[in-house]
Amino acid sequence: MNEKHLKETITPLSIAVLFIATLLSNVSVASAQEIPRDKILWAACQWTPTSFNPLLMDEGQGWDTYIMYEPMFGMNVANGELIKWLGEDIRWVNGTCIEVTLRDGIYWVKMTPDGPVYHRPITSEDVQYSYYLYGAFDESPSYVNPAFNVDHMSSFRTRVGSMSNFEIVNDRVFRVHIKPQYANSSVMWRSVTRSFVIFPKDVWAQVVKNYSNPLSFSNNWIDSAMPAEWKVASGMYLPYYYYAMDSVIITTIMKRNDLWWGIVHPAFGKAPAPAYLGYLNYPWSNCIGAIVDLEAGNLDWDGHYIPGLDQIMAQHPHLHTYFNYPPYFPDKSAVLLVPNHCKYPLNEPWLHKAIASVIDYDAISVVVSGYLQTPSPLLIPNDDACARQLVNTTIEDKYRIDYDVMLGLEILNQYCINASGTWYTKDGPSEEWLDLYPDHEPYTDALPNEQGVNVPLGPWEIVDVVGWSDVNIMDVVAADALTNSLGIDITAHFLDWDSYINALDTNNFDFANYCMSWGTNGDMYERYTQMFMGDAGVWCHYGDYRNPELESLLNTLETAPPGSQAQQNIANQVQEIVGSSLPIIPLAGRPDWYIYSDEYWSGWPNENNPFLTVSPLGNSLQDANLHAVLLKLTKRTDLNNDKQVDIVDISVAALAFLAKEGDSNWNSCADVDANLEVDIVDLTKIALDFGWEP
After folding, report:
1. Close Cβ partners of 370 (under 8 Å, ≥ 6 residues apart)
2. What is the DSSP letter of 464?
3. Residue 87, by phi and psi: left (phi above 0), alpha (psi -120 to 50) or beta?
4. What is the pTM (predicted TM-score) of this model?
5. Any alpha helices (H) in 195-332, and if so which ranges?
6. All domains of the chain, ordered by start, with CATH?
7. Sequence-ordered strand ranges (E) for 30-114
8. Chain segment 305-351, per-residue pLDDT in tens
9. Residue 462 and residue 666: Cα distance in Å, rounded?
10. Do 483 and 490 contact (CB within 8 A), yes or no?
């Protein structure tokens, strides 16, 4: 009997019988020395975990740290919804008090040679002590601001002050009392809902007692010198294996915590599907290794920038990104072309608009994988529902600048003259600018025989970090467009990291390529404060744009009653200023690199399952999303996602047997090997997994 005749004679009922027979005759015994491939989820990126200390936040850690411990809340910025984890409820009691209720039935476990055992409940005191160590109070120790230059809880500390303003009502309820001048603060709300992981006070008080600087504590549970009584956590996974060679090749494996409180808690009532999580380190210079392993099925989840991804996806049906088509990835922040406002005429809004009008975003999208789908003068990524909550699309459209070279030339002709192929300004800087920038860069009248103050446009440079291939390409495209379309001599200049940092900190540049990178849970106030207030430098206040009216409005925006018309009115005024001045020019998008394979695991976030993507990077500000993503995953052959492979899955596949894409009985879930046909290979794979459950 040939294969064609065999397929034609198989019925759904005979398929079910065949499945059971196959199941009983193909029982495999996994080696005790190896973890079966279908029981482990492998993730990878360039981040090298050198410590598992949650106090370090972003510095030198992989994702492992943030699944050992858990946050109270998080935010799915794809839709603006609050993620509840350890926290059951959060509410404003009044304008100066936020109350949080922890879930009942949450607890710590302690690791023993025989596995995890119950330790004690998670309480409000644990939250208070964790915040204390993070630097949330005036009494917090000085070591909480590491050399990484990011003090994640400085905003909280400014608005709360003393630790006495963190009121413990009982084991499950606490209240945060806010200084009166910050009543209704949106920053405070987001500080409490941001994903700071919580750790046990009794354990970490001992860590602090034994370490003069707890930041030096590696918290490596695999280290035999680690005190057994310190191995206490609450997460879905706990450390199992760690290997490092020459500080470059890193492998960590986490094993599912089968005593995790969420398995029996009504909020979740299930365990995550993968029994193990593995993390591999591929430096950015070796993203080819990640590509090879993705294609071979040795890797499930990757956070590298991968050139030529569309061709790779077409050749390997199991590989996917958040979107099915370009831009493939959601924008986490905006890549910005930042002019130095201390230099004339780089400060001029008309110049910014001329530049924006000749940047061809379609050309950028051809050579890089991430970009703004609809570049906006309001500088807020399209996919950030939290940050865009107050964005007025009417104002956005009013100031939107489309690709139009003729418009750019018209603007230059209005404000400039062209002499011997070089553009010069017709007039000098305004008195307002001179008053705001008494420390401005010197300028001279280059054409004394011409009327007005004639300052040349260029030559200028766009500075960026050498080796950052995706943004370097953006710089080259932008510089080429400005040179060839506007006739302004602009080149891209790539610096090493320290030189780049120094250029921005000293305001010693013409244009800089930089990202608006507040994070995944910022609002309009926080993003614009980062760009336009405080000291100019690499971490904030890009380009030293000075506008007292904008600063005043932003300060008022933070404390306007949430959701009020007054708040929207302030936001509208902010947007009018940003749109008309265009102080920073949108260049492209900074995507959250997110490539996954569904060969072994399905249920990944994508455009049909909208959820903030999280790259497998160390970033506790996203860790609530990391937890939620892991809980959504299921085995590829679990067709109905009920956390088991049973007769229901067999029946689903049987009903779609021999179907191809486009047929009336086609079911993509049953196409396990992704060859666009439900055939005997798919049925066999499901049969071999029959009886599986987490």
Report:
1. 327, 328, 329, 331, 470, 588, 589, 590, 591, 593
2. E
3. beta
4. 0.84
5. 201-210, 287-296, 309-315
6. 1-26+646-694 (no CATH), 46-304+608-613+620-630 (3.40.190.10), 331-591 (3.10.105.10)
7. 40-45, 70-71, 73-76, 81-84, 87-94, 97-102, 107-112
8. 777 888 888 899 889 998 888 888 887 778 899 999 999 999 999 99
9. 52
10. yes
